[in-house]
Amino acid sequence: MIAPLKIWVKICMTYRDTMSDVAEAVSVRLDHETIRALRKLQATGLSQSEAIRRAVIDSANALGHARRIAAEMSALEADENDRAEMLRVAELMEALREPR
């Protein structure tokens, strides 16, 4: 009788995830004011990288917000009905104001 062959099989399981959004490294020089601001953000528990990422994103969003507000203000200023209503409200508020 032939002895059975003992075959050892090594099973390897590898879990991989392909990173499609690999971060781009950026180098900047920070002045004292910026370093203080960065330290304040880090004091909240954010890492240096996360603090910088959030600051850049928040700053960009604020620019868009300012543009939207400016556009809305321009539209309201051009609306004659809205301007007339604002004047009526201002007159009412003035009439309700306590005499000086």
**CA-CA gap between termini:** 119 Å
* Helical proportion, percent range: 55-70%
Over the alpha carbons, how many angstroms does the gyration radius reach? 32 Å
Largest sheet: none
Mean pLDDT: 84
Shape: elongated
> How many extended strands?
0
- Residue ranges: pLDDT <50 for 5 or more in a row? none
| Percentage of residues in DSSP E strands | under 5%
Structural class: mainly alpha
| Strand/helix succession | HHH
How many helices? The count is 3
Can you characterise this structure?
- The protein has helices at 32-42, 48-78, 80-96.
- The longest helix is centred in the middle third of the chain and has 31 residues, at 48-78.
- It contains three helices and no strands.
- By secondary structure, it is an all-alpha fold.
- The model has no long low-confidence stretch (mean pLDDT 84).
- The chain has a domain at 41-96.
- 59% of the residues lie in helices and 0% in strands.
- It is elongated, with a radius of gyration of 32 Å.
